[in-house]
Design a protein that fits this description.
Elements (H helix, E strand, L loop, with lengths): L16 H7 L7 H23 L3 H19 L6 H9 L12 H8 L3 H13 L3 E4 L3 E4 L3 H26 L1 H7 L4
Antiparallel strand pairs: 1-2
């Protein structure tokens, strides 16, 4: 997995906040409200990682790389519903990806030292959230099914609430209308 998969393509422009401010009439002061709801969503997410999963955020991000790899492999067979993904995660036989995920590849994606990734993966392995062996690489462990059922479900509900708040305040419409030119 290369670091390029986590970046926007090179031909995209970064949208400046000054440009957005010029495009939004003064009668529509929605940016601060939308940003507030986003920050509260992120803080809630961070708190749930710490308090519910009882892992540090760096370990959580490493876990997300493993989840991303797993989903990438699943999507090669076609897109899946929430329940189909859950069945794939629970069914250990389906976790046998052809492309193994290594400490080095996770390290490259996250720009973290390889030793840090190794130490955190081994810690997550002790909790059975991940499993690791040199033959098959890093994979989702049996304890991830609980995270998927509970944590992912709650995250989807929280995201739903955020998007509804953005829709009511007009932020969602403005976000969808943004152009990078």
């Amino acid at each position: 997995m290369s670091n390029n998969k986590t970046r926007m393509s090179e031909d995209r422009n970064v949208i400046s906040f000054e440009k957005i401010a010029k495009q939004t009439p003064a009668s529509e002061p929605i940016f601060s409200k939308g940003l507030y709801h986003w920050v509260m969503f992120v803080l809630g997410y961070y708190s749930r990682v710490k308090n519910t999963l009882k892992i540090d955020f760096e370990s959580f991000v490493i876990l997300q790389v493993v989840v991303s790899h797993h989903l990438y492999e699943l999507n090669k067979e076609g897109t899946k519903t929430f329940n189909e993904v859950e069945k794939q995660i629970i069914n250990a036989k389906r976790n046998k990806n052809k492309n193994k995920l290594t400490f080095a590849s996770v390290s490259e994606v996250l720009q973290l030292p390889r030793e840090t990734v190794r130490r955190k993966v081994l810690s997550l392995s002790k909790k059975e959230i991940l499993i690791f062996n040199s033959e098959n690489g890093i994979k989702l462990g049996p304890a991830y099914k609980t995270i998927y059922k509970d944590f992912v479900s709650q995250s989807i509900l929280d995201l739903n609430i955020l998007v509804k708040k953005w829709e009511r305040s007009g932020v969602l419409k403005k976000l969808l209308e943004l152009e990078s030119n």
